[in-house]
Amino acid sequence: MASNAQTEVAPEKKIQLEGKVIAITGANRGIGLGIADCCLANGAAKVYSIDIGAPEGEFEGVLKRYPGRIFALQADVTQEESIQAAVDKILEDGGVLDGMVCNAGRTKHKPALDFTTEYREMIVLIKMQLYSSFYSARVAARAFIKLGVKGSIVFTASMASYRPNKRVPSAPYGASKAGIRNMVHTLAMEWAQYNIRVNSVSPGLVKTAMTYWVPQQPDWEQQLKYYGGMPRLAEVEELGGAYVYLLSDAASYTTSIDIPVNGVIGIC
């Protein structure tokens, strides 16, 4: 007699991205490109960088290692229609999207009293962090639902969302990153019904073009002794494992969490 019970699929035991198509905002350089590199190293079929500028030297290095598997699409991630056009292009190319990393962002570190209204500094910063992340996630969710894909969305938050950066504070930056972590919980709750998982990663101090000044501080060694932890900045590729796990089918029951990757140093 035939059974009406659905055949259960065995949980994935290996952490890998074999055959998956991943989009990453802001992946022409820095943390985003490091994530792309790690995704490709773990079997992703294709990775698309959605960024406002054209790729440069760093990107070309990854392209040489993975020819025909990493692509750059230009878009303004603060505009939902621009992100939508980029995702439409991805779907035209291959007909599928499995994961979205909402990574694009910017920094502006200064005391709260020094932020100006003349140049709308705070608004620009929050728009880049929150608006772009929300729009990217929503465009991806719509694609997953349309395709019937059990998709994964991973946001780049920050250790600044947990506690302030004492040396170079930025209330708007920390607040926007904390907003991202809160948004993760809400979107995970809303989209669980579609088998869409939503999580985040909170990097600590990472070696990028935006943090070159950190180890150049005259009291950097003293800071490391005070804060403890691993006495160095992270390489961008060292963040990749957290993203790969959250994007993989091995994390099929993991949603609404944040993974701090901070070497215990936290914020200096």
UniProtKB/TrEMBL annotation:
Taxonomic superkingdom: Eukaryota
Molecular function GO terms recorded: oxidoreductase activity, acting on NAD(P)H, oxygen as acceptor; oxidoreductase activity, acting on the CH-OH group of donors, NAD or NADP as acceptor
Keywords from the named record: NADP, Oxidoreductase
Pfam families: adh_short_C2
Annotated family: Belongs to the short-chain dehydrogenases/reductases (SDR) family.
Protein name: Short chain alcohol dehydrogenase
Species this chain originates from: Periconia macrospinosa
